[in-house]
Amino acid sequence: MLESLLDGIFNGISIGSVLLLAALGLAIVFGLMGVINMAHGELMMLGAYTTFVVQNGFKALGAPWSDFYIFFALIAAFIVTALVGLLLERGVVRYLYGRPLETLLATWGVSLILQQFIRSVSWQFAAGVGVFCLLFFGALWLISRRPDFEQIRGKAIAIMLPLSGAISLVVSNLLGQTYKFAVTLPWFGTQGVDVTAPKWLRGGLPLGGYQLPYTRVFIIALTILCLFAVFWFLNRTVWGLRIRAVTQNRSMSACLGIPTQKVDALTFAIGSGLAGVAGCAVSLLGSVSSNTGQSYIVDTFMVVVIGGVGKLVGSIVAAATIGIISYVVGSNALAPLVEFSPFLQGLLEFFATASMAKVFVFALIVIFLQFRPAGLFPQKGRTVDA
To answer: Which one, of 336, 225, 351, lies nearest residue 278 by Cα?
Structure first.
């Protein structure tokens, strides 16, 4: 009975560690810019697929390199998703600040595009998107060098958006007809792919009659390391100080000469990179598919809401609580403790599935937010000036 409960708590903490990794970036981005990034789960997915690609590359090199691919995969996942996040912020989000509904819809659309891109892509489509980005964003970059850019930005976007779209459509059609670029090539496909843990992460650590899987121990250690890295960056570096200043008062920070646009871009890139690291951790727990991010995005948002926006301590407590409750309830680990009550046993058996456990946790969160709508650790002092 005790071993079953310990198993549930430990596995819940490991799940909470993954949620915390993903929620770290989301909490920083939402706390600074007020942006609800619905594509955050797909950034986790990209990090998981990056791990898969790095693993295959190191398998070709053979031993002993194949036993240490995970460290290179973590770096690659962070860099890839940070760059994608930077492109997302520079190309989409920066034009929608202060408009949460439009931002939510835009990032949701980006998430659908990324899911389909992972499933299949054609050279014709890729060429069209590339030409459009080159023309549209290149023109905006050139126009932004004008001193009156803010006055003419709306007109420039209204002109360049349809013009770039029409030119890219013509170019992609010409390429499709001339060079047969219209052939749809499978990228990763709809089926899941598997990431194999290195040899030194297989097995478990004996602890009495219970065994702690090395993979989950590694994920917990990785989460702790990322926590210290984020804390150090925010409190011991110049750019971390700037991020905290903009979070407290954007207008005053701009008056003091802090480049708020660069701070926004850097913050979004770091948050996206942390999502990639979370995706690398997720890939060690099961198959990776185009729907991987959707399995975690709701829980990640709940961690941010319960912990308090931008609060690392709150995110830690919320992630551990959600992970433990979800796993303990879903695995019915509490059943031996309520043998005296048939009613409680039946209630636990009713929620003893992964989907119903999420319903149970969500109900508890709704009740909790009725009493503390700002979360466990609400912001104090000046609020973010949107």
So the answer is: 225
Q: Retrieve residue 72's tokens.
A: 């290179």
CB neighbourhood size of 331 (10 A): 18
* Span 14-73, pLDDT tens digits: 778 878 887 888 877 876 677 788 888 899 999 999 999 899 888 887 777 778 889 999
User: 77, 71 in Cβ contact below 8 A?
Assistant: no
Q: Contact 22/44 with Cβ under 8 angstroms?
A: yes
- Nearest Cα to 118, choosing from 49, 35, 168? 49
The dihedral over CA atoms of 250, 255, 257, 260, expressed in degrees to the nearest 10, equals 20
Output the DSSP codes for 60-123: HH-TTGGGGHHHHHHHHHHHHHHHHHHHHHHHTGGGSTT-HHHHHHHHHHHHHHHHHHHHEEEH
Domain boundaries, the chain: 2-371
Between CA 230 and CA 328 the distance in angstroms is 29
Q: Angle at Cα 172 formed by Cα 191 and Cα 95, nearest 5°?
A: 80
Q: Are strands 210-213 and 204-207 parallel, antiparallel or unpaired?
A: antiparallel
How far CA 106 is from CA of 89, 240, 359, 373, in Å, comes to 11, 28, 28, 26
Q: Report how far residue 3's alpha carbon sits from residue 8's, in angstroms, rounded to the nearest whole number.
A: 9
